[in-house]
Amino acid sequence: MMTRQRIPLLVELPLLVWLVLVWGALWQDFSPGNLLFGALIAFAVANLLYLPPVELGGRFNLLYAVGFAGRFLYQLVLASVQVFWLALTRGPHLKNAVVAVRLRSPSDLLVTATGHALSLIPGSLVVEVDRSTSTLYLHCLNVVTSEDAENVRRNVRRTEEWLIRAMGSREDLARLGMPAPHHLDGRGHQ
Amino acid sequence: MDAALDLLAGVLLLGGALMSLAAAVGLLRFPDLLSRMHAATKPQVLGLLLFLLAIAVQQRTWAVIPVLVLCWVFQLLTAPVSAHMVGRAGYRTKHLRKDLLSMDELDEVVEHAANRRRKEADRASNE
Amino acid sequence: MTILFGIVAVILGFSALCAIYRVARGPSILDRVLAVDVLLAIVGGALAADMVFNGHTNSLVILVATSVIGFIASVTVARFVTERK
Q: In this record, what's one Pfam family (chain A) (predicted)?
C-alpha cells in the first residue's frame, strides 16, 4: 500500500463542498437528508480516489472574481461572433500563428486557470504548456503580423492579471509590481 | 409578460442555434485541423449557455437553475481539456499545415531541444 | 412562436448535415472526432429546443450527460492518436 500524505480537512473542504453541491444539483433536491448522504459519498470519493490536493492561493477577492467573470462573458460573445464572421468571409484563406506567452505566476492553479479561460474564448487554443517556466503556447486564429501576436500576448497577460487579483497568492500579487492593498486582502473572508 | 418571456426564450434558442451553425460552417470552411478546432469547440460554450438560458426563461422556477449551472460548469471544465488534447495531438501529427502559420514559436523551442539532444548524443558517442 | 421554432429546427438540421459531411470527409481521425463532438452539441441543442417548445424538463439530465460524454470521447481518441504515433 502506497503511503500518502494526509490532507488536512481544511484543505479538502472546498472540494467536499463542491461535490456535495454537484450531488444536490444532480438530484435537483437540496433537502438536508440528501445533502448529508451526498457529504458521505463526497468524503468516500475524496479519500478512496486519491488525487493530489489543489493548492489554493489562500486568498479570494470577490470583486475581482466578478469583474473577471464579466470580462470573460464579454470576450466570449465578442469572439464567438468574430469566429462566425471569419468562417463566413475568410474561410479557407486564413493565417494562424503559434505564439509563446510567458506568464508571471509559477502556480500550477493559475497557469491552468489562465489556459482554461483562454481556451474557452474562441480564437485562442493552448497547444502546449511548459510548466517549468510557466509558458503557454497558444494557437491563435487570424494572426498575421507580429503586432497581432503582441496584442495576443497583452491580452493573455491581462487575463492572468485579473485571475491573480481574484485568487492569486500574495507573492503573485507582488509580482504584478504592486503590493497587496490592505483593504483588499481577504484571507478568505472578504 | 408571459408572452414576452416566451418570445425571449425563443430568441435565446435562435442565438444558440446560430452558434451551432457557426461551428458547422467553421468545420466546413476552415482549411486545417487546428482552425477547425477553434470553430468547433468554442461557439458551443456560448451556444450551450444560450440554450440553458432559454430553458431557464421558459421554466421560470428556481428548481432547475442548479442543474443548468452544473451543466454549463461541466462544459467550462471539460471543453478546454478536450480541445487541448485534440489540438496537441493534431500539432504533433502530419496534419499540421505549416504553410498556414504566419509564426510558430513552439517549433523553434522543439527544434532547439532536438538540436541539443542530438549534440549530447554525438558527444556521448564520441567519448 | 411556431415559426421561430421552425427556423431553429432548420438551422440545427443544416448544422447537423455540415457536421456529418465533415465526419464522412475526414481527412484525419481527429477531424472526425471533432465533427462528432459538434454533432453531439447539436443534438444537445435540439434536446433543449424540444424542452423549451413543449415546456418540460425530462431531458435535462441527458443534456448534462452529453456535455461530459463528448469530453471523454475526444480525450480517448486524442490519447489514442498520440500513443500510436
A: MNHE
